[in-house]
Amino acid sequence: MRHPQLFTPLIGYLFAGLTLVGGLTPHTISLVSADEPASPPLKTLLIDGQNNHKWKETTPLIVEILESGNFADVTIATTPGKGGDLSTFSPNFSDYDVVVSNYNGEPWSAETQQAFEKYMTEGGGFVSVHAADNSFPAWEAYNRMIGVGGWGGRNEKDGPYVRWKEDLQKFTRDMSKGGGGTHGRRVPFQIVVRNADHPITQGLPRSFMQVADELYGRLRGPAENMEVLATAYSDPATRGTGEHEPILMTIQFGQGRVFHSTLGHDVAAMNGLAFQTTLRRGTAWAATGEVNLPAVDGKVLTSSEAASGEPATASDVESKSSAVAASAALEAPPKLDGDGWKSLFDGKSLSGWTQKNGTASYRVEEGVIVGKTAVGSPNSFLCSDENYKDFELTFEVNVDAGLNSGVQIRSQTRDEGGRVYGPQVEIESAPGESGYIYGEATGRGWITKEQPIKNAYQNGEFNRYRVRAIGDRIQTWINDTKIADIVDPESSSEGFIGLQVHGIGKNQGPFEVRWRDIRVRPIQKSGL
Question: What is the pLDDT of residue 416?
């Protein structure tokens, strides 16, 4: 946070880079959002100095909200006080990506107004916070920037009331006579997103609660090039208007972008997560036309309970949302579409594979790898030439009844005799242990101790397996049924993939096991 001398100073205030194998493009899973966004902080000018609200208390909070997680670098421009010489207030707006106003006071000089109009017309960004929309009732360009405003003698001459009508499911423009600006008692209220496709709201829940705040109503103004993103119902029971009033708006002014928020009356209101989150997203859009902040999960910003948080940790909402989303993603089976998948089997040959252990045979037949047992042979393994660390794996398999098989993951060989050992995802006819994890040649036996599901495998047909291994966690699914979800710190964190043909005794078999569509997607974990 910078404080140029010409302004009154504010007092007081993955594991990324994993080594990838096989030249694959990694699939990235963000487990927790990083505090710092990838882009440099937004150069932000925050204007205060006069306001009928307690700007000396709220300005520090706006700074903390915007600077949290290195999202913005805020410079404060404080005007002279009421009755002071405002001709001395002449910031260089063009030095900043976005201007944020916490100002409601006397008019700026004509030169400063013209400079601000030029800045906005040529593509600047502006954010109006709460009572900033009460400012400058006689400044025509400013009223076009904010779309609608309140108080200061505003009435029908300034433009319409703009409200959402539930019965019509659309916004209306009401040109009836009446003053501009009112609010009822400060109470928590629900914000409803009316345009979920805008970059600001695209990453928000469809409704969410704001803590006790002034819910502005009866704002009116030119409402040109204005888009209402969200509304709130102003309840007559709390002296409200009985209308669904605009709460979050965007306005196009020349080439410039404006985000207008009526939220943020006082310290308590600015502690609301709804205010903090929308301010950060709106500021990003006003500055750049984009919002690259993580989406906010509905379990973090809820529609039933208003949540508060420290302004200095405003970026934690995005981090928590990323963590919730990542957690949800890790509970679902790997998606078979999308980028990052690479076939380990070309459908024609065993290129990229090497047999280890045993004398079972492996051949390619009609796009399928067929493993056939050999009497007296120990377990045999067709192993990938590449090693894999964190990954998602999928394949289809059909095993003869009576044969036990499996797929090794993160496995290795012992120097003497080349014995394959490591975690094995079990394959066998139902009822059986298919999908559970066995410690092949480790002496550990079953790594998955509890095995309640015995019939997910469908006998006599190809079954779709999915495996996810990230860190110590291993998960398996068969035909979309989740089988195993374990933490296994004892096994190796990296190794090859192996297709097992189990050994058989005399007077058994021969048996075959068939694999097809064998694909792997390396995982790069980010944001830790």
Answer: 65
Q: What are phi and psi of 54, to 5 degrees?
A: -85, 80
Letter for the amino acid at 76?
I
Nearest CA-CA partner of 393 in 405, 406, 380, 381: 406
Q: Give the phi and the psi of residue 23 in degrees, each rounded to 5.
A: 65, 25
Rounded to whole angstroms, the Cα distance separating 398 from 347 reads 16
What would the two tokens of residue 481 be?
Answer: 């049924």
What is the tens place of the pLDDT at every residue in 349-378? 999 999 998 999 999 999 999 999 999 899
Rg (CA), the chain: 31
Name which of 173, 277, 182 is nearest 228 in CA terms.
173
- How far apart CA 16 and CA 280 sit, in angstroms, is 26
**HSE-up (13 A, CA, CB side) for residue 519:** 17
pLDDT tens for each residue of 230-268: 999 999 999 999 999 999 999 999 999 999 999 999 999
> Element (H or E) spanning 465, and its range?
strand 463-470
The beta-carbon contacts of 149-155 under 8 Å, at least 24 apart in sequence, are 149/180, 149/181, 149/219, 149/220, 149/221, 150/180, 150/181, 150/182, 150/216, 150/218, 150/219, 150/220, 151/180, 151/181, 152/180, 152/181, 154/179, 154/180, 154/181, 154/220, 154/221, 155/179, 155/180, 155/220
pLDDT per position as a tens digit, 410-454:
999 987 667 999 999 999 999 999 999 999 999 999 999 999 999
Asked whether 90 and 111 are in contact (CB, 8 A), the reply is: yes
**The one-letter amino acid at 25:** T
Determine contact, residues 422/410, Cβ cutoff 8 Å.
yes
As a three-state string, the secondary structure of 406-464 is EEEEEEEECCCCCCEEEEEEEECCCCCCCCCEEEECCCCEECCCCCCCCCCCCCCCCEE
Round to the nearest angstrom and report the end-to-end CA distance of the chain: 26
For 11-54, what is each residue's pLDDT tens digit? 232 333 333 333 344 555 544 433 444 579 999 999 999 999 99
> Which residue is it, tokens 């002449």?
90
Helical (H) or strand (E) element with 284: helix 273-288
Beta bridge mates, 525 = 29
Q: Are 10 and 75 in contact (CB under 8 A)?
A: no
Give this prediction's pTM. Answer: 0.64
Closest by CA to 308, choosing from 274, 282, 334, 278, is: 274
For the chain, give me the number of helices (H) and strands (E)?
7, 29
208, burial (CB in 10 Å: exposed 0-12, middle 13-18, buried 19+): buried
